[in-house]
Amino acid sequence: MSEDARSRSLISSGAVMAAGTMASRVLGFVRAIMIAVVLGNGTRQGDMFTLANTIPNSLYILFAGGALNTVLVPQIVRATKNDEDHGEAYTNRIMTAFLAIIAAVTVVLLLAAPLVLRIYTDTGWRGEELDAQYESMLTLTYLCLPQVFFYGAFFLAGQVLNARGRFGPMMWAPIANNVVSIAVFALYLVVFGSSGDRGAAFTGTQELVLGLGATLGIVVQAAILLPFLRRAGFVYRPRFDLRGTGLGHTFSLAKWTLGFVAVTQLALVAVNRLASSATTGGSGAGLLVYNNAYLVWILPHSVITISLATAMVTSASRMAADGDVAGVARETTRTLRLTTTVLLPAAVAFLALALPISRLIFGFGEGAEDYPLVAWALMAFAIGLVPFTVHYVCLRAFYALEDTRTPFLLQALIAGLNAGLAVLLVRLVDDPRLVAAALGLAYSLAYTVGVVVAYQRLRRSLPTLTVRPLVRHLVRVGVAIAPAGAAAWLITWGLARQTDSRLVSAGALVLAGVVALAMYVAMARLLHLREMDDIVSTVLRRGRGTDQAGTTEREGDEVGREQRDDTPDRLGPATPETVDATPVPTGSTGPTPVPTGADVPTEAMSAVDVEGLPVRPAPGTTAGPGSDADEPTTTLPPAGPATDGWAEQGAGPVAEDEDPEDGPPETSGPRQRAGDVLGRRYRLEEVLAGRADAHTWRAFDQVLSRSVLVQVLPPEDPRSPALLEAARASAVATDSRFLRVLDAVYSDDPAVGSYIVTEFSPGQTLEVLLNQGPLSALEAAWLVREAADALAGMHAMKLHHGHLGPDALTITPAGNLKITGFLLEAAIVPTEDEAEAVSGAPREEDPEVQDVRDLGRLLYAALVSRWPGAARYGLEAAPRDGDRLLTPRQVRHGVSPALDRITDQILSPVPRQHDTPLTTAAEVAGALNAVLGTADASHDLERRVRQPVPVVGAQATTAVPAVSASSPVSAPVTEPMGTGGAQPMEPTGVRVVETGRPAPRRWLWVLLLLLVLALVFGLVGVYLRNQAQFTGNAPDPAPSVAPAPVEVREVIVFDPEGDPPGDENNDTAPQAVDGDPGTAWETVYYLGNPQLGGLKRGVGLVLDLGDVQQVGSVDVLLPDGTTSAEILVPTQRDVATAPTSSDEDWDVVAEQEDVGGQTAFQLEEPVSTRYVLVYLTSLPADGDRFRGRVLEVQVTG
Asked: Does residue 507 lie within any of the structural domains?
């Protein structure tokens, strides 16, 4: 497969996970919009809730970005590959250890909640004037802290699913959390409304709704993974036998990762403290603004980078385990190029469109006035989007190499830079409205420096990783996106100048996005950005509903199955779910290093010859140890007729004159014995199949510590050169539906023949399944469609299978397809006469035609369990009417008419009803895809493989059978899961495992009890704190502070409708606050009526308090008579200067009519504000005219 094809495969793998992430992010935005509507963006209440929720979220980052996410996946994958129980015991031990740690952490945090909150908040919150707000925030913290346990449980379960190749559930589960959160804020909005003082403390009921609602969302998010764990075949059983199990190595790795997170948390503490300082005065760009900007900024990274990197870390871990350092470098480079193709344009979009984006998302309700604060922070973050993404991918490469020390050191550098720059920039701007923007810029600059160091350090571990290609790629992407970014900004700027309509703003944003995207795609094509072609082709292919990789999407855990099938991977003796886990493309152009201690050279293999064309093995080709090629990526033990093939465990019947316990007959015994080591690397364990001239062994790779299959030819076998060349050529088949050759060694030793090392993959061949009976229509169509789709790509390269029978198709325990013997059987093909005798029909001269006819035969056999031709593969010959083959519907009742027609179109020279013959694999795949649509049979096949149908009369045996004289076989068969008791009859080669009674789960109940106690403790703490406020049993409270006068720093006249505006006896305005009732500020005279002669709505004085203060009442000394007055505060509380252009910029907080003398204006609720407006709306009579006076004003806090 070409580089382009592998890139598209990686994109396709990430696309399904990206869909889950995108859905979660969309709902996350809805949740953020609800918070902005209800609490605002830059308000004190918004930061109180956000700060209380920061502590469990910080620990979420600790476990997600730390030990669980980066250490567990590689370790569980290795245990899955190497342990006899597929890593189940190891995983249970890890889960037990980490769950116990998480439970303990949760309890400690609940006990230390006041201390933790003090660490995360600025000292301004602990002033006397904010006592009520701080108490409210502490109550919310108690209610949110139990989330820590459920975050940990969620990530543990998610990483177990990831290690088993099921990536979808973990990406989709946060949707449930967001749905719960949206419902909670909707309830809050309905019950409490969106008005009120957003600088005041929450009431007790509001605290319960917000705190318990936030925790409930995380509980639901964790619980939703439990059904997927069961479907993956994993049942958690606590295990505390931790000594001597290798967990010490895991925790040794985790210590650096936890150190990595520790320094991250130190930087986060600094950021939180600085951000929380912005809203101590009432409003500003605090933590909620910072988080909202981060939420928008991280979206493209979450959808693109995390999805691709999640696939990369698993596949790169397998490559690293196989010693393929060059492959890790290739995978890292490919991921970087794909991600930056999208992320650099996203950064430009944020810089150009930050204001309209922020207004569209956060500009509703309480957030209508302060959304620009989010926009400024978003632009600061945008500078660091590409450095952050590149750094993220580099860290995943380190983790795949099991290097957790380097990420710790890198993160220590970045955290230190982030904290230092944050303090410096916040002090430089010295403006509450710009705190979040300063923090975002510090974040970006820190990662810009950090990524340079990280990339250079990674090059030491991956020598083939170079800088220039990535820099050239970024420059080309930058050139492509620059005109698009400029056009997008001009569109939104131009329309914003014409109107302030929110609808027009949204339309301008959409128009700008469409124009920019079209321009970028056009420029990318012009500059030949291959990654853009890959992305566009993948999107178009999915839009048509056709997946060229041959896998169909399903929801839930089936999403993970597509992830496994779309790309090639390295396989080992893994659990059924990890057999097809995230694949890893390979194919470097240099020679493969010889393992240490290998005395027989290991031949490297290449999918192309020196001219770059696919290699087709020729019968007369010779090969030796000196051949120069690259490592293969695709394989399987070749299958062939009896005279040339190798046998498979459980693949055929045992001859009556052979003892199944003895293996091959004595006359055909292998020259090697169990315990022999080939090439000082592969220790032979047991014979799985064999005959006089070849044997298949299960062996142990002592270099990589994994089980493999070794197929040994007789010494000086004439087929050796052709077979080794075929193995080398098979490297071109990187589609994960083809199994891969791992090693091919030529030997001229008279005692040891040449041998081929292949993957050890569990599963059942289609031959075994068809001997149990026909498949369902869905299963038959899906299997053949998958095979046809995989072969279509090979046919385009003029490469063909040549011998595609039921023995060459293996169904894994996860229900996926594996094609065996690609190109290998052609190297050991019998003579034409032998082939005709076996199949009943001569082989086609055109190998592509032969493959297509084999697909038709497979479909026929799958539908009716008969072989179209002579009896073969343990199946009876299909019936005929004269010389014409009966169709499947004529043989078996209930066969799908559509599949019957497709079978006829493939096998019949003249199809019925004048249908068009299907002559290519692509046509077969297309016809079956039209029938299947989005249906997926992998789950049905999974059940069929795990619970095989007993064959009446079959011998119950677990021994390796001899090779049938007429039936070639392929790969070893895994042992299906048993149900606790042996069945009376078992199909050949299927062993039912007695699972026994599950161990009591006492420790699980202990853990649950600890969690319940933690929850009870938290709720009791909340109750006691609330009771202390209303009972006399509370500790001695601080003495209440009596209302005190607030100093007025300056007074200006408010007269927006004057002529000129703002000019009404300005020189006497200070006399209203000089403390002398004998002096006063007076208005001019008005004629006609007391409502200022109908010329104005009012006139008054603006009192400047110097900074934001709590205002509870305003006392005004008025002259005797009938004056009507109002007390107003600015609508936007955090304004730096008082609005003087219109009274519509002010909110009325108190008013009285027809009063005189000493008048007290009592506010319903205290208000935090810097400016207070005393507004006269009706004046007392002064003779035949009307004139207002304000003798003295006093503001009380």
From this structure: no
